[in-house]
Amino acid sequence: MALVEVKGVSKHFGGLTAVSKVDLAVNAGEVHCLIGPNGAGKSTLFKLIVGLYPPSQGSILFDTVDITAERPYARVQRGMSIKMQAPSVFKELPVRQNIRIALQERLSGAERIAEEDRLLTLLNLGPDSEKLAGALSHGQQQWLEIGMALALKPQLLLLDEPTAGMSPDETFKTGELIKSFNAEGMTVLVVEHDMAFVRQVAQRVTVLHLGKIFARGDLKGILQDEKVAQIYLGK
Ligand code: ADP
Ligand code: MG
């Protein structure tokens, strides 16, 4: 059932505990939202899951295999892909070239070009495919990054604040896109601040606060939770 299991994971940076004894299960086939105030440890938890940081304590399982000691590349090969919070598109290269770089390991020739076209269309980037990535709007750059993560054809897609800098219309389209990947069987874990977006896509929600799990449950329960409203929505 659980595609990813985080068990008792902590991460210390010197004297600061960014993530503290976190248990989290992401079920195969779900869209799971991770929410919480700034500095709660969300991005750190993502980096622990993909192996960009070693945990100070605890273990991480993917598809029941303990991957705690695996390098990020090995985790990508198992089927994980991440869009990080900080933009990482190649701004000096055309949009299509960005997608191509991400596809290169998996596909070549006509098959690769067909997949480039499919992803560019899916992400509404078709008309801009020859522009430099740096010339895209911020929202479009986010889409391009999502496209690069999708190019790896992941089983698990991790998206850290995918709608930052997007208009409400772009945000809604992103939500619909995520739902369409999910309908095709992709498991998605997403960090998001925009509660309208969380309502649109989430099946289950985990709330992180001060590095710890503060609440978790189905979308409805979390939205009705007064403790969550207090810490998160400032009510
Ligand atoms: P969130 O994504 O929820 O806003 P982060 O995971 O980015 O939170 O950060 C959690 C805490 O860990 C913050 O206090 C942040 O300053 C600290 N932190 C994150 N990354 C590092 C790092 N590489 N070195 C030192 N402190 C860090
Ligand atoms: Mg963050």
Structure notes:
With 235 residues, the protein is an alpha/beta fold. The chain has a domain at 2-83 and 155-234: Rossmann fold (3-Layer(aba) Sandwich). It is built from nine helices and ten strands. The chain has helices spanning 42-50, 72-78, 95-103, 109-122, 138-150, 168-183, 195-201, 219-224, 226-232; strands at residues 2-13, 16-27, 31-35, 57-62, 65-66, 80-83, 156-160, 187-191, 204-209, 212-218. It has a six-stranded mixed sheet, sandwiched between helices. It has a four-stranded antiparallel sheet with strand order 2-1-4-5, with helices on one face. Strand 4 (57-62) and strand 5 form a beta hairpin. Helix 3 (95-103) crosses helix 4 and helix 3 runs parallel beside helix 5. It is globular and about 50 Å long. It starts with a strand and ends with a helix. The mean pLDDT is 94. One of its GO terms (molecular function) is ATP hydrolysis activity. This is ABC transporter ATP-binding protein. Residues 4-235 form the ABC transporter domain. Pfam families: ABC_tran. Involved in beta-(1-->2)glucan export. Transmembrane domains (TMD) form a pore in the inner membrane and the ATP-binding domain (NBD) is responsible for energy generation.
